[in-house]
Amino acid sequence: MFYIRTADRLQRTARWIESLPGGINYLRDVVLKDSLGLAAELESQMQDLVDSYFDEWAEAVKDPELAAKFAQFSNAKDGQDTVEREDERGQKRPAWWPKQAVTTTTTTIAVSQSDAARGEEARSSVSDSSSDSATLKSSSSSDSLSSATTVSTSPPPSSDSLEPPNQIPFSSLRTHWSSTTWMPLIPASHFDGADDLPNGISATIRVSDTQLAIFRVRGRYYATQQMCPHKRAFVLSDSLVGTNPPSEEKQEGEVYIACPHHKTPFSLPTGACLTSTGNNPNESMSIATFDVEEREDGMVYVKLPPLDELDAALGTSRWIVRRGETGAAQLEEMDQKFGGFGDGRWKRPAAVVSGKARKPELRQKKEKDEKGVEMIVEGGCGGCGGTPDW
Ligand code: FES
User: Fold this and answer.
1) Is the Cβ–Cβ distance between 224 and 271 less than 8 Å?
2) If phi over 0 gives left and psi between -120 and 50 gives alpha, with beta otherwise, what is residue 149?
3) Which domains does the chain carry?
4) To test ligand 1's pocket by mutation, which of 239, 259, 320 has the most ligand atoms within 8 angstroms of CB?
5) Which value, to the nearest 10 degrees, does the dihedral of the CA atoms of residues 123, 124, 128, 130 take?
6) DSSP 130
7) Model's pTM, two decimal places?
8) C-alpha gyration radius of the chain
9) In this predicted model, what pLDDT tens digit does every residue of 273-318 receive, in sequence order?
10) What is the atom index within ligand 1 of the atom nearest the CA of 259?
11) Which atom in ligand 1 lies closest to the alpha carbon of residue 231?
């Protein structure tokens, strides 16, 4: 309770103790000797907390309606592994993240001059192939992928902008599909209220072996791949959403997402990585984007390529982080170095036991600042440092 009432917002306990006048000794006096005369008050507050506690996760598991909100996919009941597990020290853990980001992918469609010619042929045979809002031929069955509607053909890549075959940036995929089809993927009601929320509402979608993220943000839909190319984590539907200020080129400002893991920002309209620090090795990352729209039948449609092409470029089984992929496990390396669990028990390295492994600055006793501790006794935000709302 003393920590809750005196720590700054999001301040870690280690930093909090360091900020106390006298550090751990001061804290010991407060807790064990009641040097501030607060013990009874803190005990009473702790009892209130204990009495009002309930396990919200257990409640969610017990309530089917609530539990349904935590499904992996918004359009499919079955879950899908997105990372393999490894055994280490007798326990299972997710495989370590890959060391390298991925910047390109491949499709089953070879990209070449002849493909450009083939695309040109297809374009001339489809009267309105470049239209994003082609006529709906069948929309009666809205919840089945087999009811895919209008077929339109993407414009072929121009011959002077072709990347080498099998090396296509994710954001360029949309110009390399052999054809595209509007598919109904999720009821628009999933996004009800999105326009009233600063972050909008997102959905995690599974199509065949591929995972997609659909966003409804500030009156518009966007669709992207679900995998963040930085660590091949399938998390982008949980991204933070932001808008760049309007610029000379873009009057409205560009809506972007920031991956929940390491906050790499990607443009929602184009899929381009927006990190431009000049020395970021991952600047060449990008994500695939798709046309998406809501239709009168109440479904949200996404314009997708043939599913085998989609899976070849973005499928989960292609990009899942594999067991052992990043080489020897970090703890295994450490165990080998220090002896590890050779006889079934962890051996502390001699340097650790003697204290020589510690950094010199940590060996020195720190002088604490003389600032007193300020108790926050009422008001506040309800979070760390303020009076809790419970
Ligand atoms: S996994 Fe690192 S930014 Fe997405």
Assistant:
1) yes
2) beta
3) 1-77+368-390 (no CATH), 104-319 (2.102.10.10)
4) 259
5) 30
6) T
7) 0.66
8) 27
9) 988 654 555 668 999 999 999 999 999 999 999 999 999 999 999 9
10) 4
11) 1
